[in-house]
Amino acid sequence: MRLRKQYLTKNDCYRAGRTIRPLGIMIHSTGANNPSVARYVPGDDVIGRNQYGNDWDRPGLEKCAHAFVGRFADGLVGTVQTLPWNRRGWHCGRGKNGSANDTHISFEICEDGLEDASYFKAVYQEAVELTASLCKEYNLDPLADGVVICHQEGYRRGIASNHGDVLHWFPKFGKTMDDFRADVARWMEGEDETVTYEQWKEYMDRYRRELGTQPASQWAVPYINKAIDAGRMDEVNGSIERPQDFVTRQELATVVSNL
Ligand SMILES: [Zn+2]
């Protein structure tokens, strides 16, 4: 899980300042095709920045979730926490038996076009890890009745407005809310800490992409400039490509052949 914090302090929900004792977690999805978290938060260099001033950090919206899961600036998935977890959120309206706003922490998963399996896999896993960490923090059992529910399940229980999320999306990729709860419980037990080879390759790929976005260390800059000036390595944006990433034998051979 990649968690950043950017509270929406101008949102009326934040400013209302009411607190809850969290008894569960409600999962939502945004209902709009925009996977960037910066659609909903002002953002920063890591999250990406909202260019249109239409994020939720403003008055007059009458809605606010505790977190958003979606793409950051680097295209990888992360979570931005937007309210303190024990603040009373405005995420699910009300049903005939009351409102989960009074009991449940909420997060929104940013929807894309709902066709991309790799995006779904990434946000689903992020949502599992986020829910697991919240269940641990608040000592909640994700398999207990009514604890981890989606908006649609909240509606059926009479504690939320009539929305379909997330059951218009998860089943497209073979996941039910029972699967989700089971995955959260498994993650909490630590079963999934055993990394499979396929996961390791994914992590390695992700790690290298992260390294690839980092600028050169200050001490290395003169040597990099020297290598560029001597024509031994190619210049990319005033430095070399991916200065902090690993070098392969074939890349080394290319550099050596330029000596
Ligand atoms: Zn919802």
UniProtKB/TrEMBL annotation:
It comes from the Bacteria. InterPro entries: Amidase/PGRP_sf (IPR036505), Amidase_domain (IPR002502), NAMLAA_amidase_2 (IPR051206), SLH_dom (IPR001119). GO terms for molecular function: N-acetylmuramoyl-L-alanine amidase activity. GO terms for biological process: cell wall organization; peptidoglycan catabolic process; peptidoglycan turnover. Keywords: Cell wall biogenesis/degradation, Hydrolase, Repeat. Pfam families: Amidase_2 (PF01510). Residues 207-259 form the SLH domain. Its EC number is 3.5.1.28. It is an enzyme of class 3 (hydrolase). The keyword Transferase does not apply. It catalyses: Hydrolyzes the link between N-acetylmuramoyl residues and L-amino acid residues in certain cell-wall glycopeptides. Gene3D superfamilies: Peptidoglycan recognition protein-like. The keyword Hydrolase applies. This is N-acetylmuramoyl-L-alanine amidase. It comes from Flintibacter hominis. The lineage of its organism: Bacteria, Bacillati, Bacillota, Clostridia, Eubacteriales.
